[in-house]
Specification:
By secondary structure, the protein is mostly helical. The chain is built from three helices and no strands. It has helices at 11-29, 44-56, 67-72. It is globular. The two termini are 26 Å apart.
């Protein structure tokens, strides 16, 4: 887990995050988000616990390869997004 303001980011990390984007990242990491997801203003310890469950343990993630790994491999990283209704039908092998 990295902070946008407290950590130094390597150029390759920025490139991957830029390719994935929030919509695709959240579609993957929040595929099975629990009803008790912390709200803004939640005490820091609860938020930190949730963030670690979300990103380190991937407890709420979709099955399959994470979008960051797909982006690094030159594969589509939007396969978990569902806005158009057919995104789940895309193959991660299809180039972006």
């Amino acid at each position: 887990v990295r902070s946008l303001t407290l950590d130094t980011w390597k150029p390759e990390w920025i490139e991957v995050v830029t390719k994935v984007g929030n919509k695709n990242g959240n579609a993957y990491y929040e595929s099975k988000t629990p009803a008790d997801k912390p709200k803004p203003g939640t005490i820091a310890a609860d938020s930190e616990r949730y963030i670690r469950r979300k990103y380190e343990r991937r407890e709420f993630a979709a099955r399959g390869t994470c979008p960051g790994d797909l982006a690094r491999q030159g594969r589509r990283c939007d396969i978990y997004a569902t806005d158009s209704g057919d995104d789940n039908q895309r193959s991660p092998e299809t180039p972006a």
